[in-house]
Structures are given as C-alpha cells and as structure tokens.
Automatic annotation (TrEMBL):
Cofactor(s) needed by this chain: FMN; [4Fe-4S] cluster
Glycosyltransferase in keyword set: no
InterPro entries found in the cross-reference section: NADH-UbQ_OxRdtase_51kDa_CS, Nuo51_FMN-bd, Nuo51_FMN-bd_sf, Nuop51_4Fe4S-bd, Nuop51_4Fe4S-bd_sf, Thioredoxin-like_sf
Annotated family: Belongs to the complex I 51 kDa subunit family.
Pfam families: Complex1_51K, NADH_4Fe-4S
Record's keyword annotation contains Transmembrane helix: no
Keywords carried by this UniProt record: 4Fe-4S, Iron, Iron-sulfur, Metal-binding
Gene Ontology MF annotations: 4 iron, 4 sulfur cluster binding; FMN binding; metal ion binding; NADH dehydrogenase (ubiquinone) activity
Identification of the protein by name: Formate dehydrogenase beta subunit
Length: 518
C-alpha cells in the first residue's frame, strides 16, 4: 500500500529547501522500490521546524523536522515510513505543543490537506458554509456574519457584517467583492499561508460574500512577491470553476459568482483599500479621499466589499458552525480567533491561531520562547510597520483591539516582531519615518513632507544636535501627521515613533557628538 508523505509547498518551507527535500524522497524511494505518494501540503506554521515532513501512519501523522535533503536516506533507514524514531522525529504532529495549544478555526485545514484537492477540502468540512448560505436570504447571511462579531483582520478591525450590509443596501446592478491580499506589513504571512495552504476557504468566503451582497464578481488583489500564492490561487479558482463552485450557478443555486486573481507590483500603499482599487483599475496606486466609501462607490465606481483575506477566509466557519459558535471565542468586542504571526528575533517564529485575549507576554515568552539570540526581549512591535513598540512593562496587555488602543497601540494584521536588548530604538523610530517617506503615495503634505522632516530630525537627535528641541519637534511633527494625514500610512507612522520615544527615552538622549579638533 502506498504511504502518504507530506512535504509543504508553502513559500517559507520552499525557502528552506522543501523542493529539494521532496525530490530527495522521490529519488530515494525509486532507488529503494518504495511505494510513496508525496503530497505538497501547506505549512503548519512552525517556521523553525521547516521543512517539516509528515508521514501518515495508523497512529496518525508523525512529524520530522527540520529536514535537509541529506537527512533523507537516514530517515528512511530509521523507518520514517512507519513513523519510527529518529533524532529529527517530533512525534505526532497534532501533539507538538505549539500546534496543540492553538484554536484553529480559520486555519483548521492549512497544512493538513492537499491545497489543490477539492475532494480533500470537502472531506475536511469544506463547502458546508457555502451550502448553508445558498439556502439563506442575503440579509440573513449578512446578519449571521454581523452576529458572529467578526471584525476586519486587515488592520482597522471594522465589523465585517456592517460593511456587507452597506453593500447589500446600496443601489446598483453590478457589485464587487475585492479581497485585499496585498499583505504589505513586514513580518506578516497569514494571508500568504492560507492562499498557499487552503485556497478554497478563501474562494468559499468570497462566494458567500457575493451571495450576501448581490456581488457577482470578485477579485483577489495580491502582489508579485507572492508567486507561489498566485499559482495556487489560480489553480484553485480553475478547479472551483470546473466543479461549479464558481460560475453562473454557484453549486447549482442559480446565483452567479466568479472571480479572478490580480497581481500588483508591490507597493505598501496599494494595501490601503482606495489605492488598491485604483491599482486594480489600472491607475496609479494613490489614495482616494473618502467619502465616497468603497462600499458605495468602489471598484469602477460600483458598490464594493473590500475585505482582508483572513476576514473572508473566516466566513465559511462562521456560516458552517453559526454566529454563536464563533463569537463564543475571544474577549470584549474582539470575537473569534486571530492568527498571530510571530517574527523577528524569536525562538519559535510562525503562525499561532488563538482566541483573542492572550497577553503579549504569553505570546512572546511562552509561545515564542523568547529571543532566538538568547538575550532579553527589549521591545515588541505589534501590528506591522505602523504599529507601536511595546516594552516588557506592557506585556500584560491582552491581545484585543480595544486593550491595545488603550495603550496607544494597535493589533493591525496581528504581526508581532520581537527585538532583543541590542536594539536601538532611535534607529527604529528613524526607520519608521524613512519607511513612510519611501512608501508615501505623495497625495497629502503631512505624510509626504513630514516623513522626510522626521528622518532629518531623528538624525539630528542621533548626532546630539539640540536634542531637547529636536525631540519636541519630532513629537510635534508626529502630532501633525497623526491628525493631518489623509490615510493611515501618514496617520499611524507616529505610533512606532512616539512609542519608541515614550517607552525608551534613554535611546533618544545619545551622548553629544565630540567634534574632531582642528
Ligand atoms: C498604508 C496602508 C496599508 C494597508 N495594507 C493592507 C494590506 O496589506 N492588507 C489588508 O488587508 N489591509 C490593508 N490595509 C487596510 C485596508 O485599507 C482596509 O482597511 C482593509 O483591507 C479592509 O478589510 P477588512 O475590513 O477585512 O480588514 C492598509 C491600510 C493602509 C492605510
Ligand atoms: S497619508 Fe501618505 S500615503 Fe496616505 S494619502 Fe497621504 S501621502 Fe498618501
């Protein structure tokens, strides 16, 4: 009987040699006359163990990692195909604490199934949400999503159901669903992982959004830096269309929904929804003033839902298990689960899906295992490049939209980047301003000019030039950018800058530079 081996095709695993490992297994199996089937699955999200190879045994799936091509003969000698012991053996995959302690709702199938097998998808609970939605009136689908408490996972945390209701109620014979898969935040990869590991869940979520709002066409807008995600999504869309999951009559419902994948060149601002819509229309990716809201006048001026990948990919489970099931997880107004992406100088980097409410300290110290360098954690940036830096003193903050906002921080797309005690926070503040200057679309003055002045001011502080006056100037500049910018690129850059100044003031008082004697 053929033995099923799983070797991820996820970009993170590929970067660590997964293709070469898969080739080594097929070469070795052929030479030894072994009957194996290699499934190229998504990643389980434990990046320090990639490439993570799994074998299906009578006792369930057994994991080995990180596997290098040169390990393959030894692994086969040791009896990997029977799940036998080896120094790289990690035991039952589901028993690895990092995975076992998660609550995987959105990522339930990621790393488990063959991403481009609709059969596998169905066997693992796929399509149930869409089937339920087909039997419901659009307003009832919208109500279910609203009642679940699902909020946008792209950054702003806006309630998904309310956005959908605006589009449902908007007049117009053509409406659109646009999935924001730009994922520009450094240190984030949840969107990419789900597209590469479980593309049908996103397709299903978009189809449900279409049925709920009356939109018949959808686009996934992603970036050229995600070639593997683009390939998997294109393949999955073609399979879904051939199987009648997409097209003029979704699953025979008589209601139409179809979709395409569009690839941008990769600009941070093109993740902002209105700049994204411009880019999708073939225009330059600059921010549009709001109003009008995209929900009323979005893609080509038509009512458009713009939602993040994870928001849309969470809808099938909401529809399948019901709003009450989903909203039962979480705390306060942050309902359900959130895929936290742990990156930077950390021992156990990867994706950890859990109900809202864990403290930052639990995430960094217990789940992440502290720094990879072994030095003390000094700062953690939460929410991508526009997120605040939190010191250890704020490690009791629970992962919740409101709790982070109350401490002048944000959750954003739930990426966290860990830094040890060698980090220079003045340099990080300068970097935030520089990032904004480079990525600014240029439409408004506080962001376009302010960010460049910010870099200059940080440089003056670093050189010890009138430090007190320049610290005040930097704070004043942040205030102008925060309240005067048209979008959150200029408006949120002050978060990393001000948090660095507030929590790490010692880094903003460097010793005055001694001018070289003539
Ligand atoms: C500069 C900037 C970049 C953004 N980048 C992204 C992104 O890469 N992905 C994303 O989903 N949202 C991004 N957003 C947020 C979007 O504008 C928008 O709020 C989101 O796509 C709405 O979807 P959601 O309600 O499902 O979160 C960005 C916003 C700004 C201001
Ligand atoms: S804040 Fe920056 S990115 Fe946003 S509209 Fe203004 S110039 Fe463009």
């Amino acid at each position: 009987m053929t033995v099923r081996l799983y070797v991820p095709r996820d970009a993170a695993a590929l970067a660590l040699g997964a293709d070469r490992v898969a080739k080594a297994f097929s070469r070795e199996a052929e030479a030894r006359g072994l009957d194996i089937t290699i499934v190229r699955n998504g990643s389980r999200g434990m990046h320090w163990l990639e490439p993570l190879v799994e074998v299906e045994t009578a006792e369930g799936r057994i994991a080995y990692g990180p596997v290098r091509p040169s390990d393959v003969p030894g692994l086969l000698d040791a009896g990997l195909l029977d799940g036998k012991a080896h120094p790289l053996c990690l035991g039952g995959t589901e028993e690895i604490p990092f995975l076992k302690n998660q609550t995987r709702l959105t990522f339930a199938r990621c790393g488990v199934i063959d991403p481009v097998s609709l059969e596998d998808y169905k066997t693992h609970g796929g399509l149930r949400g869409l089937e339920k939605a087909i039997a419901m009136a659009p307003a009832d689908i919208v109500k279910e999503v609203t009642d679940s408490g699902l909020r946008g996972r792209g950054g702003a945390g806006f309630p998904t159901g309310i956005k959908w209701k605006t589009v449902l109620d908007a007049p117009g014979d053509q409406k659109y669903i646009v999935c924001n898969a730009d994922e520009g935040d450094s240190g984030t990869f949840a969107d990419r992982m789900i597209m590469e590991g479980d593309p049908f869940v996103l397709i299903e979520g978009m189809a449900i959004a279409g049925l709920a709002t009356g939109a018949t066409k959808g686009y996934v807008y992603t970036r050229s830096e995600y070639p593997h995600a683009v390939a998997v999504m294109n393949e999955a869309v073609a399979i879904a269309r051939a199987a009648g999951m997409l097209g003029p009559s979704v699953l025979g419902s008589g209601r139409a929904f179809d979709m395409e994948i569009r690839v941008g060149a990769g600009a941070y601002v093109c993740g902002e929804e209105t700049a994204l819509l411009n880019s999708l229309e073939g225009k330059r990716g600059i921010v549009r003033a709001k109003p009008p809201l995209p929900a009323l006048q979005g893609f080509l001026g038509r009512p458009t839902v713009v939602n993040n990948v994870i928001s849309l990919a969470s809808v099938p489970i909401v529809m399948d298990k019901g709003a009450a099931y989903y909203r039962d997880f979480g705390m306060g107004r942050s309902r359900g689960t959130i895929p936290i992406q742990i990156a930077g100088n950390v021992q156990h980097g990867g994706l950890y899906e859990t109900a809202f409410g864990l403290t930052l300290g639990e995430i960094v110290d217990t789940i992440g295992g502290g720094t990879a360098s072994g030095r003390p954690v000094r700062a953690v940036q939460v929410g991508g490049p526009l997120g605040a830096y939190f010191p250890r003193a704020l490690f009791d903050t629970p992962f919740d939209y409101e709790a982070f906002a109350a401490k002048d921080g944000l959750i954003g797309h739930a990426g966290i980047t860990v830094f040890d005690d060698t980090v220079d926070m003045l340099k990080q503040a300068r970097f935030a301003m520089e990032f904004c200057a480079v990525e600014s679309c240029g439409k408004c003055t506080p962001c376009r000019i302010g960010s460049t002045r910010g870099v200059e001011t940080a440089d003056k502080i670093a050189r010890g030039i009138e430090p007190e006056k320049n610290r005040e100037l930097l704070a004043d500049l942040c205030n102008t950018m925060k309240f005067g910018s048209l979008c959150a690129l200029g408006g949120f850059t002050p978060y990393p800058v001000m948090s660095a100044m507030t929590h790490f003031p010692e880094d903003f008082s460097p010793a005055p530079m001694v001018e070289a004697a003539e």
